[in-house]
Amino acid sequence: MNEKRTLYHALRIHQDRCVGCTICMSKCPTGAIRIRNGKAAIRANWCTDCGECFISCPTKAFYVEEDDFEHIYQYAYRVALLPALFLSQFSKHHSLVEIDAALKQLGFTHIFIVETAVDAFKVEIAKQLKKCEDKPCISNYCPAATRLIQIKYPELTSHILPMISLITGAAILAQENLLQQEAKKEEIGIFYVTPCAAKIAEIKGMPSSESLVNGVINMDTLFNKVSLLLSKNKDANTENTLGQTPSISGCDMCWNLSGGEAGQFQGRTLAIDEIHNVMGFIEQMESSEELQNIDYLELRACDRGCVGGILTPANRFLAAERLTKFAQEIKPASVKYDNPNASSRKRLENSLLKTALIPLPKESYQGNFDEKLKQMEKVRKMMCYLPGIDCGACGAPECKVMAEDIVRDEAQLSNCIFLQRELEHYGKLDGEQAYHIIENVWGKDRLKKNCYKRGATLEGEQPEENSK
Amino acid sequence: MNLSYEIEAGNFTKAGYASSEVKSVLKQLSIDSSLIKRIVIALYEAEVNVVAHSEGGRIRIEIDSEKIKMIVSDRGPGIADIEQAMQVGYSTASDEVRAMGFGAGMGLPNIKKNSDELRITSHLGEGTTVEMIDYFK
After folding, report:
1. Is any Cβ of chain A less than 8 angstroms from the Cβ of B13?
2. Residues in chain A closer than 8 A to B65 (CB atoms)
3. Distances (CA, A) of A465 to A20, A462, B31
4. What are the pLDDT digits (tens) for B38-93?
5. Which value does ipTM take for this structure?
6. pTM
7. Cβ pair A198, A71 in contact under 8 A
8. Are B116 and B134 contacting, i.e. CB atoms less than 8 angstroms apart?
9. What sign has the CA pseudo-torsion A291, A292, A295, A296?
10. Cross-chain Cβ contact B40/A363 below 8 Å
11. DSSP A262
12. Which of chain B's residues have a Cβ under 8 Å away from the Cβ of A361?
């Protein structure tokens, strides 16, 4: 069914860096990681791109795929589609003017703040909230949170607002503004600067007809490039050009922060951040009467919102503080969507709605109800034998998950090191076979001495080619 | 398939454990979500009743291809007049229990509303057994 559709993901694993330590496997909120041949492997259809694996990895084996920066030069008009939180990544010693100048020096011709589009979204969301009968309405802002719902809480998928992403909305405004300045469509390159992997997956997973974004640049990459220039540019000629972008109200600027969205609507609204909090809350919501009358639910997979994104270099608490400060400094008098943007806004307003997301349930068991019930009973029987300590040595995060894998023919009971001892004890497995099984899960030579591993005597040294 | 859970008297923080476990089992079996909601609400109410009124009890659940049968039995005072207890708003809950937001007299009516079959047997001074059945089709 849905299992056949492979979802796009931006999280990748450096095979040479991964040591199969099982940490990411036990951290993954949807149980999408297994260890095979000694390396972590992600099951694409269960992954929400939340980045828990990326954060937890002790060897920095995860990376986020990104477009080559050079791609921007294919276009005459090079737009950096910048979330406001990018500006909060720098210490207060750098002014916005300096940052803007550095971005221009890097080759961007236009800087467009994503949150410029918030205003139009607010109006539409308020409309949706009014006519929504199936409460709560769930924000579609965080793609990791919406993916989590599609996979783990599929029955709530219909609650997610059927709207385009804020990024697409901002891209529409940016493109329309340039078209009005006589630019041709094919000359415009819009590059989104992303704080996380999920937004890349969202953008790249869209049909190309829907996406106006031509490329994605990771926020840490751009931060490094800008920082390098800032350190050189001490006395460069810095002209204030941020005024080119339409002005944004302070509270719209904080949209990405936890509560930045929920706080702007009437009724009972709640903001939940960090993926485990999100899961805990949804689970409580499913059975508690008290939580049945929520109007709007803002969900963010990262702690504190997007300032906690895995590609944001700054400490999330400091970044949130700086962003809030910027927002306070913006004068409410500054008019939004003044000319030449009136018609851009019209186009955005007409594009806000899109078809609803579909559920993509994670199914541990297959077949019809009776078959599923049988598989579940099988798992419970296997649990009588498995040790129940969730050590991960079989390559699955929990004993129960391993049993489910076995039922789906993706693992064997003998992968369990406890059961191996038991089988050996009763003469059903010889040492050679047991050794072979371990190498299957953990890779060849895994049981051999290796002084280059983390914490061992030669950690950090370059291994010699023939030092097996 | 059989499932079994113990219920501790007086521990409201743990009330809801069994119903949320059962919920995840039913989800894995791809039961329709509105039916899951019915089952979970009925079971949760029964769980709270045991926590609030008894000296402890047990939930036994049987799932087969047609139905889920939930038997919640407790040791405790029993119910003097079952018909009266089924009335909306009727409750013998103590002030303490009411202060925690329980004891509004909605428990048994809610269970009745959310189960296809309901049987209550009770012996004064011994305990109560609530048997609920929901059919999958």
Report:
1. no
2. 369-370, 373
3. 21, 9, 56
4. 999 899 999 998 998 899 999 999 999 999 999 999 999 999 888 888 888 788 77
5. 0.83
6. 0.88
7. no
8. yes
9. positive
10. no
11. G
12. 30
